[in-house]
Amino acid sequence: MPQERDKNGLTEKEFLDSYTDTIYERPSVTTDILVLSVDESFSKLKVLLVKRDEHPFLGCFALPGGFIRPEETAYQAAARKLYDETGLKDIYLDQIYTFTRPGRDPRSWIMSIAYLALIPECCEVNSNAKWFDLEIGQGKIKLSNREMFADITYGIKDETFKNGKISYENWVAGKISEDGLAFDHIEIIIESILKLRSSFEHSDQAFNMVGETFTLPDLQALYELVLGKKLYKTNFRAMVAPKIEATGQKIKSSTSHKMSAEYRYVAS
Predict the structure, then answer these.
(1) Which of 14, 58, 88, 204 has the greatest number of CB atoms lying within 10 Å of its CB?
(2) Are residues 65 and 108 in the same domain?
(3) With the C-alpha atoms ordered 39, 44, 47, 53, is the resulting torsion angle positive or negative?
(4) What is the enclosing helix (H) or strand (E) of 250?
(5) pLDDT at residue 119, as a whole number
(6) Where are the alpha helices (DSSP H) in the chain?
(7) Residue 20: its pLDDT value, please?
(8) Is 165 exposed, middle or buried (0-12, 13-18, 19+ CB in 10 A)?
(9) 8 in any annotated domain
(10) CA-based angle 187:192:198, to the nearest 5?
């Protein structure tokens, strides 16, 4: 069977043998990871930041991340960098978005594939990574760490964007505090939170943010914290009922401080 030839009369093998990758400029590609957790009382969201020890943005806090190697996928790179910079491994990772805005990195043309990592409570991490409180509300996003006297605040406003016939709202951030995050990492945080909120009620993502067992008051507190709204107790319990089972034991709830029925996640 004769091989197909293109408009220049070349077979695929001849085309590939003569192909050069110098025709087009090529960007470098990184991956950045928002690690999201919750405090012991299920009253605050927590994010993991690392302090940069090199230019650019020397001394600024940033999300964990780094360059993707030619022999690995973006997911593999995210898992590797997360372990290298924080010591975390074998955790939930969800790809959020690819950030390509020109000039987002002052070094050169660099794109970033962002991931969201979800973990239960705030576990111990490498010394160069620090847990920050994440507060969202009243037109602001605030990241703070009292021990380091760090306070990073952005104002956020709703803006409407159009994609074809569909209009949608997104948050646009502007730095209020003197200090800010490196690169466009506030945009990564915003996209991650908005995507998580859109899927949290209809997925099993929440169970990555609780322990092997939990109480229903604590689980509801987690849902409300992530979603930024109160939920009706009856409706909430009906929603999660197919995903959980009782262990027959009772444990102390972190939110009500009372003994409550213990549950565990049942994988669908």
Answers:
(1) 88
(2) yes
(3) negative
(4) strand 244-252
(5) 94
(6) 12-18, 74-86, 185-199, 216-227, 233-240
(7) 86
(8) exposed
(9) no
(10) 130
CB atoms within 10 A of CB 102: 6
Question: Where residue 39 sits, what CATH number does that domain have?
Answer: 3.90.79.10
Q: CATH number of the domain that 235 lies in?
A: 1.10.10.10
Closest CA to 183 of 108, 133, 131: 108
Ranges under pLDDT 70 in the chain = 1, 122
DSSP 15-45: HHHH--TTSS---EEEEEEEEEEE-TTS--E
Whether 21 is in a domain gets the answer no
Which residue range forms the structural domain that includes residue 83?
28-201
Which pLDDT tens digit goes with each residue over 27-78? 999 999 999 999 999 999 999 999 999 999 999 999 999 999 999 999 999 9
Number of alpha carbons in the 13 Å side-chain half-sphere of residue 156:
19
Same domain, 167 and 228: no
Is residue 119 within 8 A of residue 33, CB to CB? The reply is no
Q: What is the pLDDT of residue 177?
A: 96
DSSP 131-162: EEEEEEETTEEEEEEGGGTEEEEEEEEEEEEE
Using only C-alpha atoms, the chain has a radius of gyration, in whole angstroms, of 22
Identify each DSSP E strand in 52-127 by its residue range. 61-62, 65-67, 92-99, 110-118
Q: Which two tokens stand for residue 24?
A: 């087009």
Q: Are residues 192 and 216 located together in one domain of the fold?
A: no
Same domain for 221 and 127? no
Question: CA–CA distance from 189 to each of 109, 183, 247 (Å)?
Answer: 21, 12, 36
Q: How many structural domains compose the chain? A: 2
